[in-house]
């Protein structure tokens, strides 16, 4: 049986996809966003799903909900909320969501898996957050070998985005072979994937009718290499929505090609913006066709004003990108499903770790596991 993991603060499942593609079995996922956990359920139908505020959950609760114990659980992965640490936001040390970062480590100490892997924004390493990190690590420093926080950029691992995140990794002595930070360095033979590679085959002309009419569109031939092969393949057993996979294979159609209606004036303004430059009004950056996509943002939930994230402009069309284009740029395959609305789709994509980066990191961990007797 494959080693098992659970995904906490799972969102739509970037970490989950990376884990299953690395060879782990995902037995459970938990998140407090009902639409994110619903979409996660679509993509991981064989896993257990728990819509819950993890702040009030104990390790025992996780064991009972997902059906594991410390002897059977291999790993816990997750991306605790980062908004309080983000330089793109207010970087508020008093943000109550910051405590969830600490709580992730507390749950690890109560479940005692063989390893844990947490992801957050670079701002977590700022001096003002030293106390938060120390408190978090205090729950696991006795039982785990801890590596220094690793700053990894998704484009260095074959994703078309410069999204940079900090990974916190620890493992129990005797459960894994000795690992060091350099083991997680980018492979020397990694292919560079640029915006034009990522968007290849997707429709460029997008109209704005209803989701039922315009959400599913046919894709043309894809780029080659590992990135192109993973867009329609590399589907782990028991992962993916069967209907969506069938439509992709038989009709070569993908969901999420949902347009945003712009006025003629706005389209004309977008047309004057050079690649790499920012629109003065919307603050949207026009993507460079031969460059990387900058970090996609998530916006805020309904509890914090429901503000939409700034969406990049398509490199050749006078419009913002579609959810499916955002998914490609983040490293998600075409068969992966998101919410049916643009707003929630972009939130789910922007909140997610790039599955390409997650797969690489978790493959290193998977290959280092010491078989249990």
Summarize this structure as a short list of keywords or feature phrases.
single chain, DNA Methylase, Chain A, domain 2, 373 residues
Describe the structure.
The protein has helices spanning 14-21, 34-43, 59-66, 98-111, 130-137, 195-199, 211-214, 225-232, 242-251, 264-271, 323-330, 342-350, 355-367, and strands at residues 4-8, 25-31, 48-51, 73-78, 115-120, 145-146, 150-153, 164-171, 217-218, 253-254. It is an alpha/beta fold and 373 residues long. It folds into 2 domains: 4-186 and 353-367, 3-Layer(aba) Sandwich (Rossmann fold); 195-350, DNA Methylase, subunit A, domain 2 (DNA Methylase, Chain A, domain 2). The strands form 2 sheets. Strands 1, 2, 3, 4, 5, 6, 7 and 8 form an 8-stranded mixed beta sheet that branches. It has a two-stranded antiparallel ribbon with strand order 9-10. Helix 2 (34-43) links the parallel strand 2 and strand 3 (48-51). Helix 1 packs across helix 13, helix 3 crosses helix 4 and helix 4 (98-111) runs parallel beside helix 5 (130-137). The longest helix has 14 residues, at 98-111. The chain is globular and about 60 Å long. The model has no long low-confidence stretch (mean pLDDT 90).
Please, what is the average pLDDT?
90
Helix count, per DSSP? 13
Just name the CATH architecture of the largest domain.
3-Layer(aba) Sandwich
Number of domains: 2
Cα(first) to Cα(last) distance is 13 Å
The name of the CATH superfamily of the largest domain reads Vaccinia Virus protein VP39
Number of strands: 10
How large is the radius of gyration?
A: 20 Å
The percent range for helix content is 25-40%
H/E series: EHEHEHEHEHEEEHHEHHEHHHH
General form: globular
- Relative strand content: 5-15%
CATH topology annotation of the largest domain: Rossmann fold
């Amino acid at each position: 049986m494959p080693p098992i993991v659970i995904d906490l603060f799972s969102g739509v499942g970037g970490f989950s996809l990376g884990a299953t593609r690395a060879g782990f079995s995902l037995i459970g996922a938990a998140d407090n966003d009902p639409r994110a956990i619903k979409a996660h359920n679509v993509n991981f139908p064989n896993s257990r799903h728990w819509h819950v505020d993890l702040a009030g959950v104990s390790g025992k609760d996780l064991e009972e909900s997902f059906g594991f114990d410390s002897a059977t659980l291999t790993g816990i992965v997750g991306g605790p909320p980062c908004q309080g640490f983000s330089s793109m936001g207010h970087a508020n040390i008093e943000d109550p969501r910051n405590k969830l970062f600490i709580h992730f480590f507390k749950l690890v100490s109560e479940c005692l898996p063989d390893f844990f892997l947490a992801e957050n924004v670079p701002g977590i390493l700022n001096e003002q957050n030293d106390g938060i990190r120390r408190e978090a690590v205090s729950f696991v420093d006795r039982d785990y070998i801890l590596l220094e926080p690793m700053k990894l950029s998704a484009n260095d691992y074959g994703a078309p985005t410069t999204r940079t995140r900090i990974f916190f990794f620890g493992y129990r002595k005797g459960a894994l072979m000795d690992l060091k930070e350099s083991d997680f360095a980018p492979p020397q033979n990694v292919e560079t994937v640029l915006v034009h590679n990522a968007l290849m085959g997707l429709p460029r002309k997008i109209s704005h009718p209803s989701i039922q009419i315009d959400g599913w569109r046919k894709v043309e031939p894809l780029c080659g290499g590992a990135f192109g092969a993973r867009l329609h393949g590399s589907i782990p057993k028991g992962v993916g929505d069967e209907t969506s996979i069938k439509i992709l294979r038989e009709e070569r159609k993908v969901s999420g090609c949902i347009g945003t209606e712009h006025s003629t004036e706005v389209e004309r303004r977008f047309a004057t913006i050079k690649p790499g430059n920012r629109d003065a009004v919307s603050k949207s950056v026009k993507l460079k066709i031969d460059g990387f996509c900058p970090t996609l943002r998530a916006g805020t939930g309904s509890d914090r004003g429901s503000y939409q994230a700034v969406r990049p402009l398509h490199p050749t069309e006078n419009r913002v990108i579609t959810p499916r284009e955002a998914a490609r740029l983040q490293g998600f395959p075409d068969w992966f499903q998101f919410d049916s609305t643009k707003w929630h789709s972009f939130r789910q994509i922007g909140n997610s770790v790039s599955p390409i980066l997650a797969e690489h990191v978790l493959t290193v961990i998977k290959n280092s596991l010491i078989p249990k007797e």
